[in-house]
Write a structure and sequence with these properties.
alpha+beta, five-stranded antiparallel β-sheet, two-stranded antiparallel ribbon, 36% strand, globular
């Protein structure tokens, strides 16, 4: 689904997809080479912030506020549309390894190293024998700083940056190297 979103010209300037591959399925005989316990912990934080019963996959979260089954195309496009019409004052850009922007509230500035990967053959588990395409895979996520007001900071090699509320996990602004 992420690949489809990335190729949709109507969404190009509205979204920055990020794929956090959780590791709790790795015991099924095939280890996802992009999975991380850090991403499973991040999903658990969303479970708490969004008052969910438990984590699940595939899960999609839009702007840190709306969640649903990741294969639910209608919910995904509706959530993206609603988020794109929100009046947000916070801003962030990324140019030459530097993030700059402005926020009127205390937010965490995160930097992510995100890559589109080649196909991965699955050798076991429910997808055994299939080849998975992996787009927008997060390889590294770093909290750069807590920011308020105008800021200019080094991104430490990130190609995506975003401003996130540390309590609610709402994402207010994001930018990527194009």
């Amino acid at each position: 689904m992420i690949g489809e979103l990335k190729r949709d010209p109507a969404l190009r300037d509205k979204i920055i997809p990020l794929a956090f591959h959780v590791d709790y399925w790795n015991q099924l005989g095939w280890r996802d080479p992009f999975s991380s316990s850090e991403w499973s912990q991040r999903q658990a934080a969303y479970v708490r912030a969004l008052n969910l019963d438990s984590p699940y996959t595939p899960q999609a979260i839009v702007d840190g506020q709306r969640q649903f089954v990741g294969s639910d195309r209608r919910s995904l496009y509706d959530a993206i549309d609603r988020a794109s019409h929100e009046n947000i004052r916070e801003r962030v850009t990324i140019t030459n390894g530097v993030a700059s922007g402005s926020t009127s509230r205390d937010l965490d500035l995160f930097g992510a190293v995100v890559r589109d990967e080649t196909s991965t053959p699955v050798k076991a588990g429910e997808n055994s024998g299939r080849t998975m395409r992996n787009d927008a895979v997060v390889h590294k996520l770093t909290r750069i700083a807590r920011v308020k007001g105008d800021f200019t900071l080094n991104t430490n090699g990130a190609n995506v940056v975003f401003l996130q509320d540390p309590k609610t996990l709402k994402i207010f602004a994001a930018a990527m190297v194009r």
